[in-house]
Specification:
Helix content: 25-40%
Largest sheet: 10 strands, antiparallel
Structural class: alpha+beta
Bound molecules: beta-D-glucopyranose, 1-deoxynojirimycin
Number of strands: 43
């Protein structure tokens, strides 16, 4: 069953009924100000950091779901009827409803009783505000007297404190109202030099700033007293829950349309210009007023929309494909890069599942997020790599996350994940292959952000390699530490305390738990590091890395192979994990794909055997599960992985992030059918028709789909912020379509399914557009041929053209 459809031309997903299985959301903003917006206008907004600078409140486990966000009420002042054009929270029946989620904007349209409302939501480029441009049309044969009410519930900045510290925060709330604009001033009197504000482009008939005054005692947002009665009292909040609620009246002739814009903004003032005049208690509102004034002009929001759309057209221009498969084309051309951008911006911090409180920018996560979109925003990727590297610890290790506002690392969600450093090498390699910009390696980068500790970035890479080499266990495999990619494989934690965090509980000392996964990751990273060193002419370092990769490969061959697949780990006391000798968790997906990517086991056929084992034991119609059999009971020696009910999350869920590794492995071993098959199993567009089972958005990947052991097999959870986005982009574009940046040129080496006749693509790479046409070739030559501007080349890597060459024509004749 579907709840909408793709509009590929407009690059929109059109939701046609409001009661989607879960809130289906969009992200507005991509620089400093971000807003999450559901198809019923729920969600929240923040400046840079979802935890520390939250503008409006959102309650995650509310009933009904997704009440909270942008409250927009239309009231018929003739008969007192009122409704929300986005359906929530009144849920009054609508005669028409659509929500169009586009790239960086959303339009929600709803009609009732001959009054149509279409609201465009966006964050204007360069602005720290979200704009709701409401267009109201009277389709009645008679004039309509209406009131529009726009409202937001302010968060008292620190979202954690706002939801917990009631001793303090019931008393701190402060507002200021001036010219119909509500300024949210909590803590402005002391150490903050920023405030939020809520304004309307049209004259305001009334306002409330006290939630109780707007809603009425013991009432909810579904029947606010002020809207019901049609009048506001002009309340001023003193503590409790400050809101911004504005009323504006409209009289519309038959057929007439009018635009009214509400704006939720964030403004910072220089510390010495906080008040106007200085020394008074009146906040300096000049910056906010300048923004508001711009939106008094009709057409400003349309201009913003054009700018947002144009920016996306430019970004997406880096890679466009025509394969004939709509699920491939729309994901590769539009939605997958879009999701990659959101994950790049927010890592795992803020979604409908990530409260924005617990997690900042993940070290492992942010490095991987880069892989999917270096080509789209190379400059920002450069800056991000330097930010991440600056949080690295002097021993080469990493904090598991850092806060975006401060850029400082912390151990709030644990530390000592021994895979972390290797991902930095992969991110830098991806950046270099895309851009050829070797200067980044010489950038001075601090250690643990300590001023004066800077050494060049290439030194950070060296220490990433050293970090693993200094932490090897008895089998010559890397010690796992807290965990590796699988945060829940906690082989050293042994937690027996109910509720104790597996991520932060102390590790039991003295163990020898080793990770075969990190071993494979290390081989991949060490090879990349060797190639990077060679680019810099550092042969000794290149040889060292290559030798380390070979030694690790030997350890994997000796101790990582189980007979039909790669093992997962050795536990605290050296027992096998992920082996046929185990009762549960015999085979894990992670090492099987990764070994192929690292080039381990290709020559001796082990990788091919491992891939076959995955297909036989782990693949389901909804994707590939993490391991089998699932853990039926809690295993003290394995940790959080066994704490989940079977089939969910890390306990044999379909953790989508890992599936592209198998797609890549299939492609590396030449199986285009197998690769695309896996690709389509988790592709959200391909799952659109089963939206009532899948439940999450059909336009973005989810972190997890319930595995075959789960009663709700096929149900997705935790959409949007997942490494799945980046890895699927890599798998489909670089390995299946085979358009792969390398240090010395673009390789085009497709591994496509037998049923495809070919495909076309354009790829912008280092300033040159490659027009690529892939065809099946039955005439003559049995080997695949790559023809560049009419001349066949050796192999599939296209030598870099003269700088400034605008276009290169590439024809690939697949044998
Ligand atoms: C989740 C993981 C997550 C980890 C760290 C665990 O509870 O299952 O998916 O990576 O927490 O935040
Ligand atoms: C989610 C985390 O963000 C990611 O870093 C981790 O690899 C996966 N969970 C698997 O545990």
């Amino acid at each position: 069953m579907r709840y909408g459809h793709f509009d590929d031309e407009q690059r929109e997903y059109v939701i046609t009924r409001p009661d989607t299985p879960l809130p289906w959301i969009n992200y507005l903003g991509s620089e400093d100000f971000f807003a999450l917006l559901s198809n019923t206008a729920g969600g929240y907004a923040f400046y840079r950091d979802a935890k520390l600078r939250r503008l409006i409140r959102y309650r995650y486990n509310n009933a009904p779901l997704d009440v909270g966000g942008r409250f927009l009420y239309v009231r018929d002042d003739d008969d007192g009827d009122y409704w929300n054009p986005g359906w929530q929270p009144t849920q009054r029946e609508l005669d028409s409803y659509t929500c169009r989620h586009g790239l960086g904007y959303t339009v929600i349209a709803g009609g009732r009783g001959g009054i149509r409302t279409e609201t465009l939501y966006l964050v204007p480029p360069g602005e720290t505000a979200e704009v709701w441009r409401v267009r109201v049309t009277n389709d009645r044969p008679v004039p309509a007297r209406l009131s529009l009410f726009g409202a937001v519930e302010f968060c008292l900045w620190d979202a954690q404190d706002d939801a917990t510290n009631f001793q303090r925060n019931l008393s701190t709330g402060e507002v200021h109202v001036e010219d119909g604009v509500v300024y949210h001033l909590t803590e402005y009197r002391e150490r903050r030099d920023h405030f939020a504000w809520f304004a309307c482009s049209a004259p305001v008939q009334g306002f409330e700033t006290s939630r109780e005054a707007f809603l009425g005692p013991y009432r909810g947002w579904d029947r606010p007293l002020a809207v019901e009665g049609g009048a506001m009292t002009g309340s001023i909040a003193h503590g409790w829950q400050p809101v911004g609620a504005l009323q504006t009246a409209l009289v519309l002739e038959p057929g007439e349309s009018r635009d009214v814009t509400f704006i939720l903004g964030y403004t910072e003032n220089p510390a010495d210009r906080k008040y106007d005049p200085p020394g008074s208690s009146r906040p300096n509102t000049s910056r906010a007023r300048a923004v508001i004034d711009r939106y008094r002009h009709a057409g400003q929001a349309d201009q913003d929309l054009a700018a947002v759309r144009a920016a996306w057209t430019e970004r997406l221009g880096y890679l466009q494909v025509v394969t004939g498969d709509p699920h491939v084309d729309r994901m590769v051309n539009t939605w997958n890069p879009y999701q990659c951008m959101v994950t790049f911006n927010l890592s795992r911090s803020a979604s409908m599942f990530e409260s924005g409180i617990g997690r900042g920018m993940g070290f492992r996560d942010s490095n991987q997020d880069l892989l999917g979109l270096v080509h789209v925003i190379p400059d920002r990727a450069r800056g991000r790599i330097l930010d991440i590297a600056a949080t690295q610890l002097p021993d080469g290790g990493a904090y598991h996350q850092y806060q975006p506002l401060t850029k400082r690392g912390n151990n709030d969600i644990g530390s000592g994940f021994n895979d972390d450093p290797a991902w930095l090498v992969l991110a830098v390699a991806a950046y270099l292959k895309e851009t050829g910009d070797l200067t980044i390696l010489d950038e001075p980068v601090a250690w643990d952000n300590a001023e004066g500790s800077e050494t060049p970035l290439h030194d950070h890479l060296r220490r990433c390699i050293d970090f693993t080499l200094k932490r090897l266990g008895p089998h010559g495999l890397p010690l796992i530490g807290r965990a590796d990619w699988n945060d829940c494989l906690n082989l050293n934690v042994f937690s027996e305390q109910p509720g104790e965090s597996f991520q932060t509980a102390p590790n039991r000392p003295g163990g020898v738990a080793e990770s075969v996964f990190i071993a494979g990751l290390f081989v991949l990273a060490a090879r990349e590091a060797a190639a990077i060193a060679r680019l810099r002419g550092e042969e000794a370092e290149a040889d060292r890395c290559r030798a380390a990769a070979e030694a690790m490969t030997a350890s994997i061959e000796a101790h990582g192979w189980d007979g039909a697949w790669y093992r997962r780990a050795y536990d605290h006391v050296g027992r096998l994990v992920g082996s046929a000798s185990n009762d549960e968790g015999q085979i894990y997906i992670e090492p099987q794909g990764l070994m192929a990517m690292a080039g381990v086991g290709l020559a001796d056929g082990r990788t091919q055997t491992a891939i076959a084992s995955v297909r036989e034991r782990l693949a389901t119609p909804h994707g590939i599960v993490l391991h089998q059999p699932a853990y039926a009971t809690y295993h003290l020696e394995l940790g959080e992985i066994s704490s989940y009910p079977p089939g969910y999350k890390e306990n044999a869920g379909i953790f989508c992030h890992t599936n592209p590794w198998l797609m890549i492995a299939e492609a590396i071993t030449g199986n285009g059918d197998g690769a695309l098959d896996y690709y389509l199993r988790i592709n959200p567009s391909a799952r659109e028709a089963i939206s009532d089972i899948h439940r999450c958005e059909p336009y973005v990947y989810a972190q997890m789909i319930a595995g075959r052991d789960a009663p709700t097999h096929g149900e997705a959870k935790n959409s949007w912020l997942t490494g799945t986005a980046a890895w699927n982009m890599v798998a489909i574009s670089q390995w299946i379509l085979g358009i792969r940046p390398e240090h010395d040129g673009l390789r085009v080496e497709p591994v496509i399914p037998a049923s495809w006749a070919g495909f076309r693509a354009t790829r912008l790479f280092r300033g040159t557009t490659y027009d690529i046409e892939v065809v099946r070739w039955s005439g003559g030559d049995p080997a695949t041929q790559v023809i560049v501007d009419g001349s066949p080349i050796e192999g599939s890597r296209i030598p870099l053209p003269e700088p400034g060459t605008p276009r290169v024509r590439v024809e690939v004749r697949l044998s």
